[in-house]
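Q: Two folds, back to back.
A: First:
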Amino acid sequence: MQSRVLAILIAVVLALVATVAMVVYVNGADRRAVADQQPVWVFVAKEPIKAGTSGEDAQNGDMIERREVARSSAVAGAVRSPEQLKGRFAAVDIVQGEQLLLKRWVGSADVAGRRLLPIPEHYQALSIGLDLQRQVAGFVTPGDRVSMLVTRPRGDAGEETELLLQNVPVLAVGTTALANAASQGGGRVNQGKGSTTVTAVTLAIKEKHVKYVVHAVEQGSIYLTLMPPNAQPVDRGSRGVGDANDIPQELE
């Protein structure tokens, strides 16, 4: 009886040893397989990243994570260090789980060239150089809406000021676009009192109005006024008299 119990115990122990050995072997084989593929660290998107998002915002917003993959699975040009994303912006929308590719992150100087300006359909982006005083002391920011006034000569009548357009969307100020406003201090122009520095303010202008705005800029002096949220159009007032290049009533 004792020998039979002893045989059973020995069989159980041998079975346990065999099981442990098998687990160790399998785990070791997995590790060897990964080691043979030379694992590397890459960065992937934890969630969708919109075009125009800065590398700093992507990191601070926990939008990316570091992940170990086999070298054979790493995409050529993959981001290997967060330092590579500093001062860069997503040039396209990046989907969740996608490996970050350095070529998809561009410098601030390339933002406009990469079509990151959110231009509405049937509009065109138009930049106007304005000094501090003419852009509400630098408080015009991407995402605001402004009204545009023009002062220009009227023949023998001297100069006349009139309201040109209302509720015009601001796309960018300087090189700070709407998509990056939060990450770049709201896009405000950092100019001191009395500054005569000219800064480009980029506006979304309806296609049919672009030539009239360009004419007004070339022939007169432009001022911008900030509009409150959900502002309603105001009375344009007296149109005065003008020549053949006058702004037509259809702009109202």
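A: Second:
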Amino acid sequence: MGERRIVAVVHDGFQLLDLAGPADVFAAAALIARGGYRLDVAAERAGPVPAHHGIAVTAVGFDQLTDIDTLLVTGGLSVPRHLHLAGPIAELARRARRVASVCSGALLLAEAGLLDGRRATTHWLVAEDLAAQYPRVQVDADRIYLRDGTVWTSAGVTAGIDLALALVAEDHGTALAADVARGLVVYLHRPGGQSQFSTPVRTSVPSREPLRELQAYIDMNPAADLSVPALARRAAMSERHFSRVFTRQVGMSPGRYVEHSRADAARRLLESTDAPLTLVARDCGLGLPETLYRTFRRRWRISPADYRRRFQQKGA
């Protein structure tokens, strides 16, 4: 197989790492394999294109592109301002062997109709927007990357590196992808099905001060009695009224919020301490190690022990 041409689509205000991460993966693969990839940066108009923090890259215009193997669309906070690029992106995609997006670049693929009827992921911050604005897309926000046919999507920012490694593995085998990962000093292979571990509890900020204080109390005291009756007493409300008001203002039920908060507390302890799993489970209000295990498998698709091995901070 000859040289594969990767075309990365950028726009004013794009996320630089969405481009730089995959670009370095493909460049390292080409260096190690002595060929195989060529990366071009493309934009609506040729010339310098600034990333969100001002650093600019030089792009060719869409009209200058000929053969395309892989079309890679970058994301960034500015994506909603550039949905007019959907038409050109759809045209470029028709000429490409496969299409991929990093982070919120999935919004551009969705606007172009390229995700209709497909499973896709994106940065957890925009996953709800993707699902709401494009109901024909099957959004799975709990993934590092996803492949559905010839279309690949990835989660936020550094997940683009995982996506690019997976593309290299598909093209040239896992041995080359492993060599690239070692050369870039990144984790060899985070499976696409692995959860976006760092996703915090996503909620709305309650408008009522008592509920804001209660939310902070839950997060700071995971081992306390956080049952609905106990929380309703602290909020000076009846249980029924408290559950209704909390769910409306926070965006999830009290029980679900408590479960998520305790899981995040356990995650932080696993990252920062050597405490046995029995103590982690107890101190986070999860009770038994079995409950801790089930919580991690359900929420992050990994065991607590495996999570600690991968993410524990040095010196913990």
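Q: And?
A: The chain has 13 helices and ten strands.
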